[in-house]
Specification:
Chain lengths: 174, 318
């Protein structure tokens, strides 16, 4: 999902990186107690700025970097949570066979997309989305299940589809 | 809005989302499908948006519906719900509930069981549950699912829709697999080597415990499921539901099958000689008095029931 970095606006970005990378790395290490993860997230933070080509417009670099890094940490934790819960649920289901690491990666990416969209939806829209996409129910069945009209089901789904498919530039984004 | 990491106009994204809703419904008209193709060709961004949808929804195919639901149910805002789910997993143990005990031992500790009488219950969510004779069920309702474990026997469930709470799927589980209700009325019967499911209304998804695929049964269809797979579906007949009224409906049924069915409603041994097992019997028989049914057999077929004791009956050629 991550877009290929576009050519940097060299001087601003390099200055930002040179001045603040080691500060950000130290800040992340204190928060995460995991040097490898801190290093990855520091790198991701700068990649985000590079992709957004926003280095020149930053007035207060450190609070800005910390804000992005905080979101990346939250994403990372949520992703780990989803992966853990999904794998735990699979192990609990006798029917499922162990998926490959590649499948898990695709699954967790999909779960994260859905999770983000669900967070912005009303309760019935959430249910409609899951029933349609996960369970393959027809709209008439969803309408009956939720006790709403077919028109409402389609309205819920269109909004859910918009948020799930198009609202996220990439999964590490704020 | 974005597609594949690149910006996309909100209007285009909105149109693509609407097309997805229209086409996912499965009932798009030929005109609508043509309009959708025209829309895709009208602008490169439309095509890009649609390819993005195909890519992302293609990835959704890898999702296990049930595990996804459980993972997503643990919203970060409600940690306590996640904790309850963990406690539930711990109580089930690593091997799962069905792996841990013999069937008899499970039946002894089941939440609800019946002997020679049928029973009807209304569950906490308003679902109506009917238990056939000699049936044992565990009722496991949690924050994320409504699970009925059918230990033995046969049940019929008319699922209630829960409007005011988070959607919880309703599942019936046996040693052979799971049957997930998709808004529905259906029956599940647990025999020794298979679980039979019949759908009266709505749809039911069957997932054998050791199989790789699941099968969705539509209304008016029934199928048997073993631990490894689902046998081809067949239309249900009136006899599927007859036990709920206490009747056994036979339509050119093998006598062997008929007696096996009848034996579920009485105590003791009910045997059948091999030379009459293939005879066919038709009729509507009350299950409340199986002795009377056995005594009436000579009226229908050239056979007779020999009562050695009240609990040992053998059906032989007359």
């Amino acid at each position: 999902m991550l877009a290929a970095p576009s050519p940097p606006s060299p001087s601003d970005f390099q200055a930002l990186y040179a001045d603040h990378h080691s500060w950000l790395l130290g800040w992340l290490k204190r928060r995460l107690h995991d040097a490898g993860l801190a290093s990855d997230l520091a790198q991701d933070t700068f990649v985000k700025i590079l992709v957004a080509r926003s280095a020149a417009a930053i007035l207060q670099p450190r609070p800005f970097l910390a804000t992005i890094a905080n979101r990346l940490i939250a994403n990372h934790c949520r992703r780990a949570e989803l992966e853990h819960a999904y794998v735990a649920a699979l192990q609990h289901l006798p029917a499922a066979c162990a998926p490959s690491p590649e499948t898990i990666a695709i699954v967790v990416e999909s779960l994260q997309l859905i999770d983000r969209a669900l967070g912005k939806l009303s309760q019935p829209a959430r249910q409609a989305f899951l029933l349609a996409h996960l369970d393959g129910m027809t709209y008439a069945e969803i309408a009956a299940e939720l006790g709403v009209s077919m028109h409402s089901v389609k309205k819920y789904l269109t909004r859910a589809n918009l948020l799930c498919f198009f609202a996220v530039p990439d999964l590490a984004a704020p | 809005m974005y597609a594949d990491g690149q910006p996309l106009a909100l209007e285009t994204a909105m149109q693509a989302a609407e097309w997805l809703t229209t086409l996912m419904g499965g009932d798009a008209t030929a005109d609508e499908q043509q309009a959708w193709r025209d829309w895709r060709q009208a602008h490169p961004d439309h095509e890009r948006a649609w390819r993005h949808i195909e890519h992302v929804s293609g990835n959704f195919q890898a999702l296990d519906a049930q595990a996804s639901r459980q993972a997503l149910a643990q919203r970060p805002a409600s940690r306590r719900q996640g904790l309850r789910a963990l406690v539930l997993l711990a109580a089930f143990g690593a091997t799962g509930w069905f792996g841990s005990r013999t069937q008899t031992a499970r039946a002894l500790v089941a939440d609800v069981s019946t002997g020679a009488l049928r029973r009807e219950l209304v569950l906490s969510d308003g679902s109506a549950l009917q238990l056939n004779v000699h049936t044992a069920v565990n009722i496991r309702y949690t924050a994320s699912e409504r699970l009925l474990q059918l230990v033995k026997g046969e049940l019929y469930i008319a699922t209630a829709r829960e409007v005011h709470t988070t959607y919880r799927p309703l599942l019936v589980e046996t040693v052979h697999g799971r049957a997930l209700a998709l808004g529905t009325r259906y029956s599940v019967r647990h025999d020794a080597d298979a679980t039979s499911v019949a759908v009266e209304q709505g749809r039911v998804r069957l997932t054998p415990h050791d199989g790789t695929d699941s099968v969705v049964l539509a209304a008016g269809r029934g199928a048997a499921m073993t631990t490894t797979g689902v046998l081809p579906a067949h239309p249900t007949s009136s006899d599927t539901w007859a036990w709920r009224q206490g009747l056994l409906v036979a339509d050119a049924m093998r006598l062997g099958d008929f007696l096996h069915e009848l034996s579920r409603y009485r105590s003791g041994f009910l045997g059948c000689d091999a030379d009459v097992r293939e005879l066919r019997i038709s009729g509507v028989y009350p299950l409340g008095d199986t002795d009377a049914v056995l005594r009436a057999l000579p009226d229908a077929l050239p056979v007779a029931a020999h009562f050695r004791t009240a609990y040992w009956v053998q059906v032989k050629a007359k």
